[in-house]
Design goal:
The complex is a heterodimer of chains A (about 110) and B (about 900). Chain A is of the alpha+beta class. Chain A contains 4 helices and 3 strands; from the N terminus they run H-E-H-H-E-E-H. In chain A, strand 2 and strand 3 form a beta hairpin. In chain A, helix 1 crosses helix 4. The longest helix of chain A is centred in the last third of the chain and has 27 residues. The radius of gyration of chain A is 16 Å and the shape is globular. Chain B has 4 domains: about 70 residues, no CATH class; about 180 residues, no CATH class; about 325 residues, no CATH class; about 190 residues, no CATH class. Chain B is elongated. Chain B starts with a helix and ends with a helix. Classes of the chains: A alpha+beta (about 110), B alpha+beta (about 900). The interface between A and B is medium-sized, with 27 and 29 residues.
Chain lengths: ~110, ~900
């Protein structure tokens, strides 16, 4: 199974779904984009990316089509399905709740004495 | 919905267009690599390095591919298919191994399926009546009688006053002679109360059920015939309803025909086995005398109202009974006993069947252990193959899975073959079932049995496959590869596991052997017990002279007197007589509360004894010894003072230390006149109700001239051949009345044999299973010792070089086997003692901890182990000291 060492477990799906929600992308571009937007903080390991894409496709959240990429080669482009869009919204809400909760806990926790 | 459809189409695509899916994956990853390389080049790296760096960044392509395949979820099926192909290929390479394991598993799985199909047909399937769970049997019960038939007038009161039953019905056996439709024949018949078929939920195929009208006194000349009788005797006459037939020389009108295969629910008074065993039913005539509450001869049934339990019904009927007791002072000492019809029908087979299931279960476990043992032996040969596979990157889980697929394939093959065995086995089993075994006709292999077999196969596959798979996959890679498969550490582990398995196997086999031994011991006890009569060279038959032709009294006496005389005058006949019943056929009549002269009423109210009637030579013909006094003779006529012959138990119980001959008893409540008293004239030896009846019961016989039954058993002791005797009996009856049918023509040793059949059946099956178990355990022992000897050959060589004699080596090896066998036997004995009481209901005169059986089994286990070790031990002495010295 995939080991998203650089990502909090379970967030890779969210990032992928979110990245392709604007327009269909191929795998390499998805990884690149996550890296760029997060200012190189989030590194998507390739070994995790493709199994994740295949899993999401098997779950019916995303769909793939072969198209010609900018480079002129055939590439597999992933796009959101209708069910995938709903799933993205669900995962976004969930993430929102989780991160709020985590930051609240951190803020309330006593400052470590220097 | 669309998502589901998407998913389904994707899965199907991955499964059936696998090549294309794989190519797409390659292409996708290649595209990724190219993009990465291009980017690297843009950063000013040489194209070649750029490609390498990209490859590094992507990581192991093969791994990503494998993970992507996992994500497709169909990988499971693909792996299974490939594992299966691999398993079959590897099993084919070792045909002897495969054949042995599959065959032993098939035998034990087949035995399990066969026994289970009996359990399914007898104990699990509901009785063949609608809402059969609401049907109950109703009995009287007293301190001396656990299950007693009902009195007809009591039945009428119950039927009228109960509140918990939808309907009640009663029946009593009433075989009739059919004449005027082919040869005269005795039909198995019953007289039943109105609505009997309705209660069972059976609608006549033609005509109607008995109504309240038919029950009225003097009306009962109607009959319902079975589908079988209608077809065999009346050639399926479509106009049968309304037709007149002759039963017992009296015209009856057929009012109905049952549907095919009507199931008689079984009865206890003059028992007829359940099943398709009855030919004809007539209405019961309750008569006009509602005072008689003393004669009990009806089997009562009830259909509970929905939601009512048998307990509620018991309480309800007990309230009615209490009411009746105030109205009829004689009605005392009785309780109500109801039980579900299902329990009544099959309850007595439960212990036997569960014991057999336990026995085949043990056998299956032994076969599993045996298979595990063989797999382990095979695994130690395959260490290198497995090591190579893991070196090539197969995960341990993957290897375990592969090995489990192999064991599962073996188990399923075993189950498939076992099912074939079961098809044959069930036929043999049903043919060998003890006499009167309920629902035998309903036993077959059905979908439930197949599901059970499949479940057993999966369970077995896991059970015998898991330990070897885990052990084998643990093999130390480097070690195995370097040592070229000799892997000594793994080998040692295997050896100890295999020893443990052999101990387990011997223990299980011992449990089965002890079971078989106990059954054997109890069977021997049964055979050795004095039956009280001599069954050899005795012919029996039943004769029921029609009532209208032979009225009770001198007419009927004359008939039997002539019959007995003509038989006794026939050449080769040593003695002939008639009696109300035969030894070892249970009992039907029991009389309680008879008086003994000179004893207080209180004592007399507690007396109880079986009662029969017989002719003078009945005892002589059956070989029942007369111990004191005399048997009946010509002096005992209808008009002479009443006499009785009693058995030993009755004499000892009621006249301890006295001579019972000459004492008088009475059946009257207040005997006054001389004619109320019956004198005891003789004492005969005891005969049990059945050979395995727990105790001896008091019993007496009246002369048939003074008390008469409807149906008589004729007994003929012959010195000629069976066929001559049978012809003589037929001839004697035909001479007296050519229209009289003879029923139940049987030899007494056949009857005695049937009385043993339950014990013999249990013994034969368990002994068979135990022998197979012993063979498997011996085989397993041989395998382990032989393997250990092979591994230690060079050690033996060294030992011989150092001066060990061949007999020392042999002693050492046999000792090793005996230690395992002794440990197994000890565990088996302990288990057998712990579970022995489960068997106790099937034993006769033997306790479950019978020391003779236990020690015999322990000895047998040790001896067979020694035999199993003998061959390997001899091989060990062939070790070559020189070669050992050179190789070390």
């Amino acid at each position: 199974m995939s080991k998203p060492s650089d990502l909090i477990h379970g967030t890779l799906d969210l990032l992928i779904l979110n990245t392709i929600s604007l327009q269909p992308q191929h795998g390499w571009a998805i990884a690149k984009r996550i890296q760029q937007v997060s200012k190189e903080v989030l590194q998507v390991s390739q070994g995790a990316l493709y199994p994740a894409l295949h899993r999401l496709e098997q779950q019916g959240w995303i769909r793939s089509d072969w198209k010609v990429a900018e480079s002129g080669r055939d590439a597999k482009f992933y796009s959101l399905t209708k069910a995938g869009r709903a799933q993205l919204q669900k995962e976004l809400d969930q993430w929102e709740r989780l991160s709020n909760a985590v930051s609240q806990v951190i803020r309330l926790a006593p400052e470590p004495s220097a | 919905m669309t998502r589901r459809a998407d998913i389904l189409s994707l899965r199907l695509r991955s499964l059936f267009r696998r090549g294309r899916v794989e190519r797409e994956l390659d292409k996708e990853l290649a595209f990724h690599l190219a993009q990465q390389a291009e980017e690297n080049i843009a950063h000013g790296i040489s194209p070649r390095e750029a490609r390498d760096a990209a490859q590094r960044a992507l990581g192991g392509v093969a791994q990503i591919q494998e993970e992507c395949r996992d994500m497709r979820r169909t990988n499971f099926i693909e792996t299974l298919a490939s594992d299966l192909r691999y398993a079959i290929r590897s099993l084919r390479r070792t045909p002897a191994f495969t054949a042995i394991v599959v065959l032993t598993l098939a035998l034990s799985i087949g035995a399990n399926s066969a026994i289970f199909s009996v359990i399914q047909g007898v104990l699990l399937r509901p009785l063949p009546y609608p809402q059969a769970d609401r049907l109950v049997r109703i009995y009287f019960q007293s301190d001396s009688q656990p299950k007693f038939p009902i009195n007809p007038n009591d039945f009428l009161d119950f039927r009228q006053r109960n509140r918990s039953f939808e309907s009640l019905a009663a029946m009593t056996r009433h075989d009739v002679q059919l004449s005027g439709a082919g040869d005269p024949a005795m039909l198995s018949g019953f007289q039943v109360s109105a609505g009997y078929f309705h209660l069972l939920g059976i609608n006549p195929a033609r005509g109607r059920d008995f109504s309240a009208e038919d029950e009225l006194h003097g009306r009962g000349r109607s009959a319902i015939v079975s589908d079988r009788l209608w077809r065999t005797r009346f050639s399926a006459d479509p106009t049968i309803v309304g037709r007149t037939i002759t039963l017992d020389e009296v015209p009856f009108t057929v009012i109905g025909v049952t549907p095919p295969a009507v199931h008689h629910p079984g009865n206890t008074y003059h028992e007829v086995a359940e099943g398709e065993t009855v030919d004809i039913w007539c209405p019961f005539d309750f008569g006009e005398n509602t005072k008689d509450r003393g004669s009990h001869y009806m089997d009562a049934f009830g259909r509970l109202k929905p939601g009512n339990s048998p307990q509620q019904a018991t309480a309800d009927l007990s309230a009615v009974l209490a009411q009746m007791a105030t109205e009829h002072p004689n009605e005392k000492g009785w309780r109500i006993y109801t039980l579900p019809l299902f329990q009544e029908t099959v309850g007595r087979t439960r212990n036997l069947l569960l014991m057999l299931l336990g026995a085949v279960g043990l056998l299956l476990l032994i076969a599993c252990v045996n298979a595990a043992n063989l797999l382990l032996a095979r695994a130690s040969v395959r260490v290198r193959e497995i090591a190579v596979r893991s070196a090539l990157g197969a995960a341990r889980s993957r290897i375990v899975r592969q090995l489990l697929t192999e064991s599962m394939a073996i188990a399923l093959a075993g189950a498939a073959l076992g099912t074939l065995f079961a098809f044959g086995g069930v036929r043999v089993l049903v043919a060998c079932l003890p006499a009167g075994f309920p629902r035998a006709a309903e036993i077959r292999l059905d979908s439930g049995v197949f599901a059970f077999t499949l479940g057993v196969a999966v369970f077995t596959g896991l059970l015998f496959g898991l330990a070897p798979a885990l052990t084998a996959s643990r093999a130390d890679l480097q070690h195995s590869l370097r040592e070229g498969g000799r892997g000594t550490t793994a080998g040692a582990h295997h050896a100890s596991l295999r020893s443990a398995l052999v101990v387990g196997e011997s223990a299980l086999a011992c449990v089965l052997l002890i079971g078989a031994g106990l059954l054997l011991h109890s069977f021997v006890n049964l055979l050795r017990a004095d039956p009280g009569f001599r069954a050899q060279q005795v012919l029996t038959a039943s004769v029921t002279p029609p009532y209208e032709q032979y009225r009770p009294g001198p007419q009927r006496t004359q008939f039997f007197k002539s019959l007995i005389e003509s038989l006794q005058n026939a050449p080769g006949v040593a003695a002939a007589g008639v009696g109300s019943d035969l030894p070892w056929t249970g009992y039907d009549e029991n009389l309680a509360g008879w008086a003994i002269e000179g004893r207080p009423d209180e004592y007399n109210s507690k007396t109880t004894a079986r009662y029969h009637d017989a002719s003078a030579d009945y005892f002589r013909a059956l070989g029942i010894p007369l111990l004191r006094g005399r048997s009946f003779d010509d002096r005992d006529t209808h008009d002479s003072p009443h006499v009785v012959v009693i058995n030993e138990s009755m004499a000892n119980h009621y006249w301890p230390g006295e001579d019972a001959v000459g004492k008088r008893i009475s059946f009257e409540d207040h005997p006054k006149a001389d004619k109320d008293w019956i004198r005891i004239v003789g004492i005969v030896k005891d005969v049990r109700d059945l050979p395995d009846s727990a105790g001896l019961r008091a019993a007496f016989w009246m002369p048939y001239t003074q008390f008469q039954d409807r149906r008589y058993s004729v007994v003929v002791r012959f010195t000629s051949t069976p066929s001559v005797a049978a012809a003589q009996l037929r001839q004697a009856v035909r001479q007296l009345n050519p229209d009289l049918a003879i029923g139940d023509l049987l030899f007494m040793d056949q009857i005695a044999d049937a009385a043993f059949s339950g014990h013999r059946f249990a013994l034969c099956l368990v002994a068979l299973f135990a022998l197979v178990a012993l063979a498997l355990a011996t085989f397993g022992m041989y395998g382990v010792i032989s393997y250990s000897v092979n591994r230690r050959m060079s050690e033996f060589g060294l030992r011989m070089a150092l001066g060990a004699r061949p007999c020392d080596l042999q002693r050492m090896i046999v000792g090793q086997g005996l230690a395992l066998a002794a440990l197994g036997a000890a565990i088996g004995l302990a288990a057998a003692i712990a579970f022995g009481r489960l068997l106790s209901s099937l034993l006769y005169g033997v306790r479950a901890t019978d020391p003779l059986t236990l020690s015999a089994v322990a000895l047998l286990a040790i001896v067979t182990a020694a035999v199993a070790c003998a061959l390997p031990a001899r091989r060990a002495t062939g070790a070559d000291p020189l070669r050992s010295l050179r190789s070390e």
